[in-house]
Amino acid sequence: MSLAERKSDVRIAVVTGGIGGIGTAICRRLISEGNRVVAVYHPLEEEKATEWCQDRQEEGLGINIIAGDVSNAADGMTMIDEIENQFGPVDILVNCAGITRDKTLKRMQTEHWEDVINTNLNSVYYVTKPVWEGMLERGFGRIINISSVNGQKGQFGQANYSAAKAGMHGFTMALAQEGAAKGITVNTVSPGYVETPMTLAMRDDIRESIISSIPMRRMAKPEEIASAVAFLAADESVYITGINLPVNGGLFIN
Ligand code: NAD
User: Fold this and answer.
1) Does residue 23's CB lie within 6 angstroms of at least one atom of ligand 1?
2) Is 125 a catalytic residue?
3) Residue among 41, 125, 126, 161 flagged as catalytic
4) Residue 244 CA, ligand 1 centroid: distance in Å
5) Could you tell me the pTM of the whole model?
6) What are the C-alpha distances in Å from 125 to residues 186, 207, 208, 232?
7) Residue 150 lies in a domain
8) What is the C-alpha separation between 16 and 28, in angstroms, rounded?
């Protein structure tokens, strides 16, 4: 189905990790920009996803949710098939699902490495691959990969996470070149520390020491990451591709 053949010109946006802290803000913002949004949640989060969906409905936001383990190649493929059958071709894909398994290399076990690489990096291939051909055929697409400042500068205790997040941007730069003549842009957004349940749960002293190292002296609000995503997802951002957009309050400038 081409965009022109659809009943409306509403774009379909898929957000992996859509029910998480940053993902929720991205979903809200993409809806407010007029897109139809599908949030992907992990199959083990069924209960949380149902409540999340009800909360969005109470906010007056129409949203769709679908289960899928993005770290699994077959699941990525099936999930995109289901989305395209139910809602139509995917125009905007935000790869936002991610985990941490922080350990110094001395203590890191192979499973800590593999879990993070599979979830944060391999997933980007598993989910992007099945939407790519359709985007090429339709001559439109927006792929936005949510990386991290720690993929740009490295972080103690995060060899797995930093490698995966740096790898995401390698993928972005290569794919941007493959999509450039076809109306598809591929970009990375690299948040610094963001006020999400994960960072709010940190010990106060650790949180304070992180905040004091940020030139803006505060963490980002999830909405500030969502704003960067919405900018890159917009039709008029067509000439921006292959970039790594930092949203980090000056924490890392290069
Ligand atoms: P979060 O834990 O609130 O959200 C991540 C979501 O991804 C969760 O809903 C989780 O269930 C989902 N997910 C994890 N593994 C999955 C899988 N295999 N299949 C499907 N879904 C899966 O975290 P967040 O803070 O909202 O982070 C979102 C993204 O932003 C992540 O990629 C993270 O690495 C990145 N990031 C976060 C921060 C921060 O400070 N919070 C900073 C930089 C980058």
Assistant:
1) yes
2) no
3) 161
4) 18
5) 0.97
6) 13, 33, 36, 20
7) yes
8) 14
